[in-house]
Amino acid sequence: MERMATKKPPTPPPNPVRVPDRDEGGSVVLERVPLKTKPPGMYQVVMLNDDYTPMEFVVVVIQEFFGKDLEAATAIMLKIHLDGKAVCGVYSKDVAATKVDQVLEAAHKAGHPLKCLSEPVDF
Ligand code: TYC
After folding, report:
1. Where in this chain does the record put each Adaptor protein ClpS core domain (predicted)?
2. Which of 15, 34, 58, 73 has its CB surrounded by the most CB atoms within 10 Å?
């Protein structure tokens, strides 16, 4: 087959090359680049003591909304009663906020002043 007279395609511009930094001894120095994204922080749901909410109600709430068995829920309730507060669970921000809403709604409906809140872990 006869070759056609074709022009060579223009050479593409060279890729930008990052010339590595070197120290005085000529060794390549790598630059530490900070991660741009942080993993989302976790939130703990803290339940607070009061003088009026029955212990049995708190135990049921902890079992129902925080997935604890009777023994674990009773231990958490007693810690709240004795220390003034305790962590019921640790969740993503949205889930923790939902747990707080569920507890406050259940307490309000039952006429108890039980309070809880969510806060970042290591607050
Ligand atoms: N202190 C309450 C009582 O003696 C019991 C209680 C425990 C209330 C935990 C709230 O988050 C709480 N009846």
Report:
1. 38-116
2. 58
